[in-house]
Structures are given as C-alpha cells and as structure tokens.
Amino acid sequence: MYSSGYSNDPVMANFQQYGFKAVIAKPYDVVELSKVLKEVLAAPELDSETEKACLC
To answer: What is the DSSP string of 4-51?
Structure first.
C-alpha cells in the first residue's frame, strides 16, 4: 500500500507498476484507511511472473 499527499506523484497514478496493491491519498481518516487495508488483505497474492493468483 502506498500513500502520498502529492496529487502529481507518479506512483499514485501507476501504483501497480511499482509493486503496490493499493493507494490512499493523504489526508485520510481511520474509516478510509480501514477500508483500503481490508481490501489489500483480502486480495489474493499475484505471482509476479505470471500475474495469476497464488497461495503464497
């Protein structure tokens, strides 16, 4: 998960290319952070070579 307060941050726009599963823009509150964390933790891992879900 990646977080930034800069709207022009290239990682925010292309977070998956940098290896992140999600982004959250600053400032954020606890409810918003909780939602993104739940999504990230519930998502299956991807094998970086095949981009298929794996049970890593």
So the answer is: ES-TT-HHHHTGGGGT-S-EEESS--HHHHHHHHHHHHHSPEE-TTT-
**How far, in Å, are 4, 19, 39, 41 from residue 33 at the CA level?**
13, 19, 10, 12
Query: The pTM is what?
Result: 0.69
Domain boundaries, the chain: 2-54
Question: For residue 22, which of 42, 47, 40, 10 has the smallest C-alpha distance?
Answer: 40
Structure confidence by residue, pLDDT tens digits, 8-20: 999 999 999 998 9
Angstrom distance (rounded) from CA 34 to CA 37: 5
Determine how many CB atoms are found less than 10 A away from the CB of residue 39: 12
